[in-house]
UniProtKB/TrEMBL annotation:
<dbReference type="Pfam" id="PF13306">
    <property type="entry name" value="LRR_5"/>
</dbReference>
<dbReference type="InterPro" id="IPR032675">
    <property type="entry name" value="LRR_dom_sf"/>
</dbReference>
<protein>
    <submittedName>
        <fullName>Leucine rich repeats-containing protein</fullName>
    </submittedName>
</protein>
<dbReference type="InterPro" id="IPR026906">
    <property type="entry name" value="LRR_5"/>
</dbReference>
Length: 130
């Protein structure tokens, strides 16, 4: 496992070994920035506020996102991330299909959510009620 430490998501090559990404000072993950990055295990972004359309889509090995300031998950931003088990966030907005086909997702805690658009958790078959 290799730890990548960067200020910008766009500077990181498509990873060929498993990685823990620490993205300092990054406020936004732009559309498709990590599309199909299959070897990200953990993403830590202390200043991240927004994940845009398909920003972290099809990251099959992703197990954790640590982003305490995250406020918005964009359209299909987390789709097909099958290894992620829980999301605990202060997020305010969930766009359509935000977590579609996150089949391993068991638990979600979003105490400040104001907007949940349609089909956010479609095909999240493992999601449990609390």
């Amino acid at each position: 496992i290799k730890v990548e430490d960067s200020d910008k998501a766009i500077n990181i090559p498509n990873l060929c070994e498993y990685h823990i990404l620490v993205l300092k000072n990054l406020k936004q993950i732009e559309a498709q920035a990590f599309f199909e990055y299959k070897n990200i295990l953990i993403l830590k972004a202390p200043d991240l506020e927004q994940i845009d359309k398909e920003g972290i889509h099809q990251c099959f090995s992703l197990t954790h996102i640590i982003a305490p300031k995250l406020q918005s998950f964009g359209y299909t931003s987390m789709g097909l991330n099958r290894s992620i088990r829980s999301i605990v966030s202060n997020v305010i907005t969930l766009q359509e299909w935000a977590f579609i086909h996150c089949t391993g997702l068991l638990y979600v805690q979003m105490n400040q959510v104001e907007v949940i658009n349609c089909n956010c958790f479609r095909c999240c078959y493992s999601l449990q009620s609390g």
